[in-house]
Structure of Leucine-rich repeat domain-containing protein:
Amino acid sequence: MRRNHIFMIGVLASLTYVLTKRRAAPDKQFTTAITADGVTITKYNGHSKAVTIPAHIHNRPVIRVAQQAFKDKNLHNVTLPNTIQHIDNWAFANNKLTQLILPNELISIGDWAFYNNALTTLTLPPQLTSIGDWAFYDNALTSLTCCPTLTHVGNWAFAFNALTTLTLPASFANKIADETFHHNPIKQITYEREWPPLV
């Protein structure tokens, strides 16, 4: 009987170890910094070409991707949670991303954040206010959907892409920095009037 008890304790201990290890495994992919507001991903430690960033780590929301966290990682695909509010300078630069869905809660994108990737389409989320210099420089964008909330678009932000036509919010006209769309084969830019909501 005593042997049975010892055996059962051993089995339960093994199960606890396995389950704990599985829960911890996603966290080990990332080096993080924890603040009062949430978690910042400071470094990607994995080797996979496809990465899913969790919405929560240690029961806190993941709100920021730090400078160079995923730079030069040969990434082909990344899935971002809607909890992320800030993507810092060089965060995903020098990869091979072809598709990207930006988080709905995203507020800012830093300089060079997605420099030198292979993105073909991009939709800017509704809360976004700032795009840094060279943020999407040297991709393969043929389609760009803008949002009216932007207050700053940096120099060369969308330079060296493949955009031929642009439809932009009217308020966007005074927020485009020098050379924002440099070296795109743009033939037409349309500024779309923003109608007030119906009451």
Summary: The domain at 29-192 is CATH 3.80.10.10 (Leucine-rich repeat, LRR (right-handed beta-alpha superhelix)). Helices lie at 2-28.
